[in-house]
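#struct-help
A.M.: can someone run this one for me? Single chain, 89 residues.
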Amino acid sequence: MDFFELSSTDIIFSLIWTWGVGVSIPLIIRYAILKKPLGKGLSITIALSQWFLMVFLSILMGSKSKTHIALTLVAFISYSILKAKSKKQ
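D.P.: on it. Structure tokens below:
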């Protein structure tokens, strides 16, 4: 399936799945549950676990991507969110 064959609904769902779900997980963990920055190792572990889970689920949903670049970008952003120190600290 080419990019140009995607419907607007497919594109909207893809954006919500990749960025909405992908970024909300670390935001919830960091700011709602733990309310403090995580260590480097735990941040990497969570970001990689999330990446593997999202790639696996994307493939199950029929993704044809070979690289999953958007999910990789979300993983780096997730790591940054989880590790970031708040300005108060």
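A.M.: thanks! The chain has a mean pLDDT of 89.
D.P.: also worth noting: The CA atoms of residues 47 and 75 lie 5 Å apart.
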